UniProtKB/TrEMBL annotation:
This is GGDEF domain-containing protein. InterPro entries: Diguanylate_Cyclase, GAF, GAF-like_dom_sf, GGDEF_dom, Nucleotide_cyclase, Rev_trsase/Diguanyl_cyclase. It comes from candidate division WOR-3 bacterium. CDD domains: GGDEF. GO terms for cellular component: plasma membrane. Residues 532-665 form the GGDEF domain.
């Protein structure tokens, strides 16, 4: 309605201008007046047809139209005629850059011939008109580019399993191009940006050549290169016409492919603009509501590049793309309003970009707070029937590891959204965890599964002091948040496991030698800046070879894990414990007074000696020797600090083992 009113307003202005100028200002013959009127009507009709990007040009045309008629010697009639004609020609040329530039040059030449030979006193106005028309062309050209981009996105989004039909924002193309273009452009961008972010993250994780997402258009049975991240140039927005290639079998059969000795002709896929070598590939279907809506494709130029773990990681990302494509459908089913759409947009965008589990939970709880004004939340995990509260905004932190069979949580242990209300009206009160948990009575509680597998289950529990009514819209919203949170959490845990493989020792679970070397450099640099002291201790298990020879290597491994556990319990979060190699461990203590370093190492030695290992019916006593050095007292060099601690460890063994020795120059 707003655009229609604006159209009619401009239409009336132009009609008024035409009548006024022809009757009162232009001293020309009737034939010229009729010609001008016909051209003017064509101009107006084009304006109505091509409103979307034509408005910017009109902004410049309106003042000129009302100014030029009052110029002398009928120069105004000439410009009036030229401007209208120029606008019509632009429409006929469809703002093709080369054609428009050529015509613009002709326009300028024509204008200046008239000015210099017939109206020399109007040079200033001709300069103004030339500049103004140039600006108009530039701005209108930009609008043309935006329109073209929007039309392409519209066509692309159609194949996102008919999101265009189910989304309340994309029912008609004309609405995208006119009344609701900005809002729909936002929705298209949400999906595109989230998918690009996922592809970029997956490529970083796998360290591969390319990660590409193909959309599948079911109606026309073709694959389309929707988005991709690659070290090579990709033919984006290209349709794959060869239906005999393996990607179509992924779509038809929902088949997953991992081939580390790929010998096919990659050029048949038309993926790359230049010739490129591909020797390893992964291709997985992207599933939405049980149907394949696309293919996630990964490749690299090296043979034997991808592992089963890489396949699992890629599957996780294909699932998340499917979740993103569900975004608009959830919005339609839930009949959500603009605020909820904004929440879905925000949470989808943020969760697709982070691997940090705590950040995932913060994003989820902040989003839910805007929808459900809960009193407190509790993030709880169950592993082997033991309860653990991972995060909460409540002041109550300490809970028993067991829950009551009459508690809300006992009934909420399901892989779906669960809620209860009117709990204060019950004759038998329902507690959150167990009677006496300290939380008190509440009137409503909601449970949302965040992570669910055979070993561990994580739920986000929200309690409310007032009654709550969850209508279908909110149920759909909670289900959507639960689904996307599960995928984000799984991605986070997988990333952490992958990261741990790189920085942690596989047997003991503590940091490895490589991480220790990198981290020690940072610790010493920070200590030097803050003028604090650092102590580095090397620990060696006494007579470790005897454990292996007498009891076997399995018991030897058990001893190593036993020592690592005690070390982890004995230091602060600011300290560092790592496996140095073999039966040696390294301990880095920070921000401790000079006379306290040896006490800490001595306490560790004594704990290990006192805490025996049970092997069948026998208890084994383990002792260790520790040598340590001090930064910066002994040295400011990292390697020397390690060497000095090693020398002190050698002295500890020389003096009879099971003791702590400080380095002495």
């Amino acid at each position: 309605m707003k655009n229609l009113n604006l159209t009619l307003f401009i239409f009336i202005l132009f009609i008024t201008s035409l009548i006024g100028n022809v009757v009162f200002n232009f001293n020309v013959s009737l034939i010229y007046q009729l010609t001008l009127t016909i051209i003017f009507l064509i101009f107006l009709s084009l304006y109505f047809i091509r409103f979307f990007f034509y408005l910017n040009h009109l902004i410049f045309l309106i003042p000129i139209t009302f100014v030029v008629p009052f110029l002398e010697n009928n120069f105004g009639w000439f410009l009036y005629f030229v401007i209208l004609s120029f606008s019509i020609v632009l429409q006929i040329l469809d703002y093709d850059r080369k054609k428009v530039l050529f015509y613009f040059v002709l326009f300028v030449i024509f204008l200046w011939i008239r000015t210099l030979f017939y109206n020399q006193d109007k040079i200033v106005f001709s300069i103004f008109l030339t500049i103004l028309t140039s600006i108009s062309l530039i701005l209108t050209g930009k609008e043309k580019s935006k329109k073209k981009s929007l039309e392409e996105r519209f066509e692309n989004i159609r194949s996102k399993n008919k999101i265009i039909e189910v989304s309340p924002f994309m029912l008609e193309k004309e609405k995208i191009l006119n009344d609701y273009s900005e809002r729909n452009r936002m929705i298209v961008n949400i999906i595109d940006e989230a998918i690009i972010s996922l592809l970029s993250t997956l490529r970083t994780l796998l360290n591969c050549k390319s990660v590409i997402f193909f959309l599948y258009n079911k109606d026309n049975d073709y694959l389309f290169i929707e988005a991709g991240i690659s070290s090579e140039e990709i033919n984006l927005k290209k349709t794959l016409s060869n239906r005999g290639n393996f990607l179509y079998s992924v779509v038809r059969d929902h088949k997953s492919i991992k081939d580390n000795l790929f010998i096919g002709d990659i050029s048949k896929l038309s993926l790359y603009r230049n010739d490129t070598v591909v020797r390893s590939i992964i291709s997985l279907p992207v599933i939405k509501s049980g149907e394949c809506v696309g293919v996630l494709y990964v490749d690299d130029g090296n043979e034997e590049k991808f592992t089963d773990k890489d396949m699992e990681t890629t599957k996780l990302f294909s699932d998340q793309i499917g979740m993103i494509l569900n975004f608009a459908e959830y919005a339609q089913q839930a009949k959500t309003e603009a605020t909820v759409i904004s929440i879905l947009n925000d949470i989808t965008h943020k969760l697709s970009k982070t691997f940090d589990f705590e950040e995932i939970i913060r994003t989820v709880t902040e989003s839910l707070k805007m929808v459900i004004n809960y009193t407190n939340y509790f993030l709880v995990s169950f592993q082997k029937d033991n309860l653990k509260v991972l995060m909460t905004d409540s002041t109550i932190k300490n809970f028993s590891e067991k829950i009551s069979e009459k508690s809300f949580l006992f009934f909420a242990l399901k892989d779906k959204v669960y809620y209860k209300t009117n709990l204060k009206d019950r004759e038998i009160p329902m507690y959150l965890f167990y009677k006496g948990d300290g939380i008190g009575l509440f009137d409503a509680a909601i449970s949302i599964p965040i992570f669910f597998d055979d070993e561990k289950k994580i739920f986000l529990i929200m309690i409310l002091k007032e009654k709550i009514l969850l209508d279908p819209a909110k149920i759909f919203l909670l289900n959507f948040i639960s689904d996307i949170s599960k995928t984000a959490s799984e991605k986070s845990f997988l990333y952490q496991r992958t990261k741990d493989l790189a920085i942690k020792d596989g047997l003991t679970g503590i940091y490895n030698h490589r991480f220790f070397q990198d981290e020690l450099s940072k610790i010493l640099l920070n200590a030097q800046r803050s003028e604090k002291k650092v102590s580095l201790g090397l620990l060696d298990i006494d007579h470790f070879k005897k454990f292996n020879d007498t009891y076997g290597h399995q018991i030897g491994d058990q001893v190593l894990k036993h020592i690592a556990g005690i070390l982890n319990e004995s230091v602060r979060k600011t300290d560092l414990v790592a496996r140095y190699g073999g039966e040696e461990f390294v301990i880095v203590l920070t921000n401790i007074k000079d006379d306290s370093f040896e006490n800490v190492f001595e306490n560790i030695r004594r704990k290990i000696e006192e805490k025996k290992i049970k092997v069948k019916e026998e208890e084994l006593k383990v002792t260790v020797s520790i040598g340590f050095s001090l930064f910066p007292d002994d040295t400011k060099e990292k390697n020397l600090l390690i060497n000095y601690a090693d020398s002190a460890l050698y002295k500890a063994k020389e003096f009879g083992r099971n003791r702590v020795v400080r380095y002495q120059k």
